[in-house]
Specification:
Length: 456
C-alpha cells in the first residue's frame, strides 16, 4: 500500500466523505490528510513510504508498541472461537470472566468489580450513571452534582464532555449539561505565580472544598480527576495535591473517580496513576492501554462501597452495550496485560526506559524556547515560553505549539501540541536509541520553530 496515485485517491475519498474528529473539515480537505498505512514498534509509515517516529503511541494508547503478533493472534483465535457473545441474559464467556478477575487483581485493593464498555467516554458516561444510581440507592437523591476540573479531559459523549473542563469542548454542543461544574487544576507552572508548588497544590485542592461548601455537600455526588492530566497539558500535581483531595472527598462524603484512561497500564511508571499518587478511588476508568489501542475496549472498576451497593441492589441494572465485554476485545486485553507483566514493561517504565526518557527530554531545558520540561514514567512535556524567568507564554494567536507540531510532522516525528506544550507519550517498548532519535528530532524542530517565530 504505497503509491502516489493511491495517496491521491485515498485523500480524495477521505476529503469527500470522512468527517474527522477534532478537525476543521474544509481546512483538512484543502490540504489532504496524511495516509498512514502500517506501523511497527514505535514507527508508523505513510502511503509515500515515510517512516514517522510516533512519539505519542497513537493517542497515548499503544503501550506495547505496534506490530505485536501475539495480540493479533489472540484476537484472531477469539474471532475463530467466539466472535461474539454477550453477558446480558444469564450468560458469560471465558474472556470476560478471566479479564474481570485479572483487572481486579492488578488494580489497587478494593477495586474488585468491573463493567465493560468500548471507549473512555462510554466508561465515564457509565460512571456518571452509576454515581446517580449509588446515591439513589443510599436514599440521598439530592447528591447529584458532578465536579470536574479545568483542563480536565474525560471524553466526548454528552456526559463525558460535560465532565471535561477544556472549555472549547462545550459551546458547539450547549454543554456542560446542568449539574456539572469545574474547579481549579493543579497547574503550577502556568498558574502557580510566586507560590511554591506544594502551596499551590493545596490551594488547587481547596478549590474543590470551596465548591463543595458553596453547593452544599448534600448536593455533590462525585469529583473526577485524572491522576495526572494528559490532554490538558501533562499537568503533574504537586505532592500536596492528591492527599488533600482524598481528605476533602472523604470528609464531605463525595465519591472520588480516578480517570486512568491515559495513566493506566504503566504510563506513569507504575501500573496505575493511583499507585503513583497513592489515591484510593471509588471508581477507576480504564481504556487505551487496556488493549494497547489494538481494539476498542474500556472498563470501569468499582470500589467496595459502590461495588457492594450495586451488586447487592437486588434489582436489574438497567444498563449495558451490545459490545460490553466483547470476547475478541477481552481476549486482546488479556494478552496485552500478560505481555505487560511478562516483559516487565511497567517496571521498565518506572526504573529503566522511563528515567532514560526523562533525562533525555531534560536535555532540552537549555533550549531558548523551553520554559519547563516535566514528566514521569513514559509521559513527558516540554512547555514553550516567551520568557523563561517569568514563565510568560507566547500570545496564543502566534500558535507557537502548532508551528512546532507542524515542523515535527514535516520531519517525521509525531509530538502532540497542547497550547504551547509539546507532549510525548511513546510506546513503553521504545528503545534507548529511539528515545535519542526522538529527542534529536525534537531539538531540530524546536530550532526550526525558534527561527520561524523570530521572523514574525
Ligand atoms: N479520559 C481521559 C483521561 C482521556 O485522555 C478519554 C477519557 C476518552 O476516551 P475515548 O476512548 O472516548 O476517546 C480520554 C481520551 C489528545 C487526545 O489528542 C486525548 C484523548 C483522546 C483523543 C485525543 O490529547 N483522550
Amino acid at each position: 500500500m504505497s503509491s502516489n496515485s493511491g495517496t491521491r485517491a485515498w485523500q480524495a475519498a477521505d476529503a469527500r466523505h470522512h468527517i474527522h474528529p477534532f478537525t476543521d473539515a474544509a481546512a483538512l480537505a484543502a490540504k489532504g490528510a496524511r495516509v498512514i498505512v502500517r506501523a511497527d514498534g514505535v514507527w508508523i509509515e505513510d502511503s509515500e513510504g515515510h517512516r514517522i517516529l510516533d512519539g505519542m503511541a497513537g493517542l497515548w494508547c499503544v503501550n506495547v508498541g505496534y506490530g505485536n503478533r501475539e495480540l493479533a493472534e489472540a484476537g484472531y483465535k477469539a474471532l475463530c472461537e467466539l466472535p461474539y457473545y454477550n453477558a446480558f441474559f444469564e450468560t458469560t464467556h471465558p474472556y470476560a470472566a478471566e479479564l474481570s478477575e485479572k483487572l481486579a487483581s492488578i488494580t489497587p485493593p478494593g477495586l474488585d468489580r468491573v463493567l465493560f464498555a468500548n471507549s473512555g467516554s462510554e466508561a465515564n458516561d457509565t460512571i456518571i450513571k452509576l454515581t446517580r444510581y449509588y446515591w439513589n440507592l443510599q436514599g440521598r437523591p439530592h447528591k447529584k452534582i458532578m465536579i470536574g476540573r479545568k483542563l480536565g479531559y474525560h471524553g466526548t459523549t454528552l456526559g463525558a464532555a460535560s465532565l471535561s473542563g477544556l472549555t472549547h469542548m462545550h459551546p458547539q454542543w450547549d454543554l456542560p449539561l446542568p449539574g456539572f461544574v469545574h474547579v481549579d487544576a493543579p497547574y503550577w507552572y502556568g498558574e502557580g505565580g510566586d507560590l511554591s508548588p506544594e502551596e499551590f497544590g493545596l490551594m488547587a485542592a481547596r478549590s474543590l472544598e470551596a465548591k463543595i461548601l458553596e453547593l452544599g455537600a448534600q448536593n455533590v455526588a462525585a469529583f473526577i480527576g485524572e491522576p495526572l492530566q494528559g490532554a490538558g497539558g501533562v499537568i503533574i500535581p504537586p505532592n500536596s495535591y492528591w492527599p488533600e483531595i482524598q481528605r476533602i472527598c472523604s470528609e464531605h462524603d463525595v465519591l472520588l473517580i480516578a480517570d486512568e484512561v491515559i495513566c493506566g497500564f504503566g504510563r506513569t511508571g507504575k501500573w496505575f496513576g493511583c499507585d503513583t499518587f497513592n489515591i484510593q478511588p471509588d471508581f477507576m476508568t480504564l481504556a487505551k492501554g487496556l488493549s494497547s489501542g489494538y481494539i476498542p475496549i474500556s472498563a470501569l472498576m468499582l470500589g467496595r462501597r459502590v461495588g457492594d451497593a450495586i451488586a447487592n441492589a437486588n434489582e436489574e441494572l438497567v444498563h449495558g452495550y451490545t459490545y460490553s465485554g466483547h470476547p475478541v476485545a477481552c481476549a486482546v486485553a488479556l494478552k496485552n496485560i500478560e505481555i505487560l507483566q511478562r516483559d516487565r514493561l511497567v517496571e521498565k517504565a518506572g526504573n529503566d526506559i522511563g528515567p532514560y526518557l526523562q533525562a533525555a527530554l531534560g536535555g532540552l531545558r537549555d533550549h531558548p524556547l523551553v520554559g519547563e520540561v516535566r514528566g514521569m514514567g513514559m509521559i513527558g512535556a516540554v512547555e514553550l515560553v516567551a520568557d523563561k524567568a517569568s514563565r510568560r507564554h507566547f500570545a496564543p494567536e502566534l500558535d507557537v505549539g502548532m508551528r512546532c507540531r507542524n515542523h515535527c510532522f514535516s520531519n517525521d516525528l509525531i509530538m502532540r501540541a497542547i497550547r504551547d506544550i509539546m507532549v510525548v507519550s511513546p510506546p513503553l517498548t521504545i528503545e534507548r536509541a529511539e528515545v535519542d532519535e526522538l529527542v534529536r528530532r525534537a531539538r531540530l524542530c524546536l530550532d526550526l520553530t525558534a527561527k520561524e517565530i523570530s521572523g514574525l
